Amino acid sequence: MKITTLETERLVLQPISSDDRELIFELYNSPKFIEFIGDRKIRTLQDAENYIKEKFLPQLEKLGFGNYLIVRKEDQKKVGAVGIFEREGLPVHDIGFSFLPQFEGKGYGYESASKLMETGFREFGLKKISAITSPANVRSQKLIEKLGLKFKRYIQFPGGDEELLYYEKEKD
Predict the structure, then answer these.
(1) What rounded mean pLDDT belongs to the chain?
(2) pLDDT of amino acid 161
């Protein structure tokens, strides 16, 4: 089942589109994103649009879910992104989230990710959801644990040089 838009008390989650290139450009070039997630080499708005078209839209079309833009209801500000991804090297669909620096620490991560996980289990037919994070990203670890995911092991992606923390949660 394809879900187009999700809502929480304060947020709207909508599938990312190439119209969101400005947010992706700003988000993927923020210092914490580069430090904890990695440099995706997005140097221009065109790079951001290409990234959306090549990385996000194919999964949305194939699976009916993927990366969602997070918009604050009160003022329509784009605050970040949350998604459930099919990733090479991971046996279980992975939830990920990132926020513009000025919107961190306001509870948007838990609010958006818990809604997307609930929808993933209920509507997308997922039996498990995983999450990965860098050992240095303590804030991400706390959010992942608050979402009910449990640490399972350390993993390393093929060709990667960093050991990551791997968490999982099964459908209730």
Answers:
(1) 95
(2) 83
